[in-house]
Amino acid sequence: TKTLNVDIWNIWHAAFVASLVYAVTNDFAMGMLATVIYTMMILLFGDILGPIINKFYGFPNITFPHGTAAPGFVFALPLNWLFDRIPGLKDWHADPETIQKRFGIFGDSTVMGFLIGLVMGILAGYDVAGIGQLAVKTGAVMVLMPKMVALLMEGLTPISESANSFVQKRFPGRELYIGMDAALSVGHPAVLSSSLILVPITILLAVILPGNTTLPFGDLATIPFLVCLMAAVFGGNIIRTILGGTIYMVTILYITSWVAPFLTKAAQAANFDLQGHSSVTAMAEGGLWTTLLYVGGAKLFGYFALVGIGLIITGLLFYVNRVLPKRAAKQTEA
Which of 41, 80, 298, 314 could form a disulfide with 21 if both were Cys (CB 3.0 to 4.6 A apart)? Predict the structure, then answer.
């Protein structure tokens, strides 16, 4: 792997999946195996994402081996292929820069945030003062978040450079990405705008989808993390990010509904206070296709599923970090 993951806090993603595997199998060793294989998968995502994050977000030698954000990247790839083949949609350029050029001041990210907050306040039934406050706060977020991320990146640059120097001394010529929290990406105007619009869409989906038993509440704040790498796949196209994010939320709501009994069991085993609720679930991590892969696989096929996933990931790590670089070197020589 090329990814040096210093985002220690987000190791909870692997532990979370392991707890669900344990909840469905009552096999602690299988839960630990799921942790190892899941961590390998996250490092694989980090290796693949490094160049894309550098190109779209402008973060050199930074990647996001982040359990909530990385699955959205994979989910967006076939959707982007599909959108490229839909007449009309394929020609819509809706990145923040194009929108601002086309609509002038109304395309400015701050004004867009203000208008989105205005509409959300009206739909929520706020009074005039509440609508105005929400609109101003939403506009302020669109201004402040990119500036805060820029400050964070200034502080992280020396860490990235030092880590690269450390590795180069011991492993000359080895390329390295520093694994960081995907929070660094949520300040992008395309991510913020799409996420704000997806909040009411997600609530509406929760109400109208047949068979869904999830009512998102606190997890609505994780929507920017769910779609931040989808926006990178879509080149910052806000329309594609909203469409792709809507489809993604449908799958997430159904998976969170399916995983709720297992998550509730794990929470009860940890003596978590459910505050009178009979069942709890989580969109972040609990509703992702990766969770379905590990928990569903372990439930149906046990060790065979996890070992199979591990072998596939090992093969992909070898392909990404050994085969592809050799091919690129041969093409350069030719």
Answer: 298
Interacting residues of 173 by C-beta distance below 8 A, sequence separation 6+: none
- How far is the C-alpha of 305 from the C-alpha of 205, rounded, in Å? 32
Smallest Cα–Cα separation from 19: which of 307, 305, 308, 282? 282
Taking the chain (334 residues) in consecutive chunks of 10 residues, what is each chunk's mean pLDDT?
Answer: 86 91 93 96 95 89 91 95 90 74 67 81 85 86 74 72 77 81 85 86 91 84 90 92 95 94 86 78 86 94 96 96 87 75
**Residue whose C-alpha is closest to residue 225's, from 256, 187, 254:** 187
* Among the listed residues 236, 159, 275, the one whose alpha carbon sits nearest the alpha carbon of residue 267: 275
Among residues 211, 130, 223, 134, the alpha carbon closest in space to that of 182 is found at 223
The answer to whether 46 and 52 have CB atoms below 8 angstroms apart is: no
The Cα-based distances of 3 to 42, 115, 233, 299 in angstroms read 9, 40, 20, 30
**Dihedral over alpha carbons 114, 119, 123, 125 (to 10 degrees):** 50
Q: What is the pLDDT of residue 103?
A: 59
Residues ≥6 apart with Cβ < 8 Å to 239:
89, 92, 94
SS3 (DSSP) at 297:
helix
Question: What is the rounded CA–CA span in Å between residue 201 and residue 123?
Answer: 12
Residue 232: predicted pLDDT: 94
Confidence (pLDDT) at 277: 73
CA torsion 142→146→152→154, rounded to 10°?
Answer: -160
Q: 61: alpha, beta or left, given left = phi > 0 and alpha = psi -120 to 50?
A: left
Closest to 163 measured CA to CA, from 283, 63, 288, 13: 63
Structure-token pair, residue 179: 């694994």
pLDDT of amino acid 106:
61
Least Cα distance to 233 among 103, 75, 15, 59 occurs for 75
**H-assigned helices in the chain:** 12-25, 28-57, 70-83, 96-103, 109-123, 128-170, 189-208, 223-233, 238-269, 289-291, 297-301, 303-318, 324-333
